[in-house]
Design brief:
70 residues, elongated, 0% strand, 4 helices, mainly alpha, 73% helix, 2 domains
């Protein structure tokens, strides 16, 4: 934990632009894609597109979707 506090102390001494760059890099490091999840989402998207093209489901406008959350 002491190492973390030292890193934080050093990070807080950075210039604002450097802090922003550090934050961006830290956040990007958390966004590691999971190939299995990516594969499942791609399959889901293909199935939905196929169902739409076959007339099994209808498209809904963005406005209609957002109405549910107002």
């Amino acid at each position: 934990m002491a190492a973390l506090n030292e890193i934080l102390k050093e990070a807080l001494s950075l210039k604002p632009a450097q802090k922003a760059e550090l934050i961006d890099k830290l956040l990007a490091s958390l966004d590691i894609s999971d190939q299995e999840i990516d594969k499942l989402w791609a399959q889901e998207a293909e199935e939905r597109l196929e169902a739409y093209e076959q007339g099994k489901i209808k498209a809904v406008t963005l406005e209609k979707v957002l109405e549910k959350y107002k």
